[in-house]
Design brief:
6-stranded antiparallel sheet, Jelly Rolls, 9 strands, 2 domains, 434 Repressor (Amino-terminal Domain), alpha+beta, 5 helices
Length: 183
């Protein structure tokens, strides 16, 4: 059985930009009680705990899960989140442990002869930087097509209409860093 993580309360409260008084007011308790809970001096009642979770817009389980530094920094090969739509020949593997930072790290795989978003170009806020690990990749930027090969890299503003295609006969594998995170 896991124990209540008092430090996690302080961490979440601060991430939300709330003071102890802000949280206490939102929970209809004294600032002293919130301070004591954060310092591990007392454990809140179920009712107060429920109010804290609501005020912080978080789940109760977030205060009981065992988290270590590795889980917040490392993504193991077999534990990557894979994003692939049905009937798609494109796979995104999330290499970032979470999307709370300012950058997203992805492994993008496109099957041979397949285009990313064949219906049109996409745009979004931020910028992208990619590196081709294997195969070929065509990056279409507005009306320009840039053909990349293994070992090539590219960087561009994501507000430029763009899409990717794999003109080769092997799976294209590339690593991408994007800001801000979108997945």
């Amino acid at each position: 059985m896991s124990e209540f993580d008092h430090d996690r309360l302080r961490e979440i409260r601060q991430q939300k930009g709330m003071t102890i008084k802000d949280l206490a007011d939102a929970c209809s308790v004294s600032p002293s009680l919130i301070s004591q809970v954060e310092r591990g001096k007392v454990t809140p009642t179920l009712t107060v705990f429920w109010r804290i979770c609501n005020a912080l817009d978080t789940h109760m389980q977030d205060f009981f899960e065992k988290r270590d530094a590795e889980e917040t920094m490392v993504v193991r090969r077999g534990q990557r989140k894979i994003i692939q739509l049905p009937d798609s020949h494109l796979r995104y593997q999330l290499l970032s442990p979470n999307l709370k930072g300012q950058i997203e790290f992805l492994l993008v795989e496109i099957d041979p002869g397949q285009a990313h978003d064949p219906e049109g170009l996409v745009t979004h806020a931020g910028e992208e930087c990619g590196y081709v690990l294997e195969g070929e990749l065509i990056v279409r930027l507005d009306d320009q097509e840039i053909h990349l090969y293994e070992g090539d890299s590219i960087s561009f503003q994501s507000s430029t209409p763009h899409r990717f295609a794999n003109p080769g006969d092997v799976t294209s594998r590339s690593i991408w860093a994007m800001t801000p995170p979108t997945f």
